[in-house]
Design a protein that fits this description.
The protein has four helices and two strands; from the N terminus they run H-H-H-H-E-E. It has about 90 residues and is mainly alpha-helical. The protein has a domain of about 60 residues. The radius of gyration is 17 Å and the shape is elongated.
Length: about 90
């Protein structure tokens, strides 16, 4: 491994434990747990068929599916409805 790569790895290790990075990540992971309780499609994919238009998109109401995907889970990455843009943040898979 060259010196430049070693420096990058060392800097990444330093940043990993900084509070300014760990707190948003922990909050994002907690929101992900809440989302998975509301929408348990990983364990029960057959329930996807139960999503009706109101559960998918209902501006002004809390907890509709796309509110979570577009806004509440933004700390994990982004998907913009109506756009081809996709991004992942903080290395969360």
């Amino acid at each position: 491994m060259n010196m430049h790569a070693e420096e990058i790895i060392e800097k990444a290790k330093e940043l990993k434990n900084k509070r300014e990075f760990t707190e948003p990540t922990q909050k994002a992971l907690q929101l992900q747990k809440e989302f998975l309780k509301l929408y348990p499609y990983r364990e029960h994919p057959e329930e996807i068929d139960l999503l009706d238009p109101q559960k998918l998109y209902s501006p002004g109401k809390e907890n509709y599916f796309f509110l979570w995907i577009e806004h509440k889970l933004r700390g994990l990455g982004t998907i913009a409805i109506g756009s081809a843009k996709v991004g992942r943040m903080r290395g969360i898979k």
